[in-house]
Specification:
Blueprint: E1 9-14, E2 37-43, E3 47-49, E4 52-54, E5 63-66, E6 72-76, E7 79-85, E8 89-93
Antiparallel strand pairs: 1-2, 1-7, 2-5, 3-4, 5-8, 6-7
């Protein structure tokens, strides 16, 4: 099954959660931080503003930083995704 986002929505897959601190301490799954870094899986066509299509600024495969608790989490075929609006994306990592 595939996800096709509408308008200015973006489907993201979370980066791996940190399970060890920089000093080497192992964290429980509850203590691990929610990652800010995601990979773009799919993007919508863009939003219409004043009747004109505003194209998307990101594309599939981009690595992006996202607001900490933005979006809606969904699980499809056992894989967790986050769907956010393009305005929830803070930066593209190059």
């Amino acid at each position: 099954m595939t996800i096709k986002p509408l308008f200015d929505k973006v489907v993201l897959k979370e980066a791996e959660k940190e399970v060890t601190t920089k000093s080497g301490l192992i964290l429980s799954s509850r203590a691990a931080e929610k990652p800010d870094l995601h990979t773009v899986i799919a993007v919508g066509e863009g939003a219409y503003v004043d009747g004109k299509l505003v194209p998307m600024s990101v594309k599939a495969g981009d690595k992006v930083l996202v607001s900490k608790y933005a979006g809606t989490q969904v699980k499809i075929d056992g894989v967790e995704y986050t769907i956010v609006g393009q305005n929830d994306i803070l930066a593209v990592i190059e």
